[in-house]
Amino acid sequence: xxxxxxxxxxxxxxxxxxxxxxxxxxxxxxxxxxxxxxxxxxxxxxxxxxxxxxxxxxxxxxxxxxxxxxxxxxxxxxxxxxxxxxxxxxxxxxxxxxxxxxxxxxxxxxxxxxxxxxxxxxxxxxxxxxxxxxxxxxxxxxxxxxxxxxxxxxxxxxxxxxxxxxxx
Length: 168
Fold this sequence. Notes:
Elements: E1 4-7, E2 10-12, E3 17-18, E4 35-38, H1 39-49, E5 56-60, E6 78-83, H2 90-101, E7 107-112, H3 116-125, E8 129-132, H4 138-143, H5 162-167
Parallel strand pairs: 3-4, 4-5, 5-6, 6-7, 7-8
Antiparallel strand pairs: 1-2, 1-8
């Protein structure tokens, strides 16, 4: 089964095509439609890419400096943050920076080695979409968004801690 996308709490078809120009050096043209490029490629070719007809999003490796993208955030409707392995938590920090410090309002997608037990916490960090690997059950992962009835701490989507919400 191919990767499945959970967006805004629902399973959906993924309209974005991932393209890695460095890996696909044989092709000099980019496909039509919405494409997802490595952020480093976007930065190196941004002036040319801005002339392209079609929507472009970027994919951030765990070592990518979010600050380098800040001038372009308003141009990017999708940012995919890569989680190369289950134990790598750098993507959580990246999401918080994008949402809270830089006010990124586009789609923020978690991709890579993610599963059901992470989705609730990924959403609290600011992610609103999750690309579930083909080795995992997307329907089961979707249930992970409701594993907990609430949280005590403040988060990206909930600015007040529980005691402030309760006693106002």
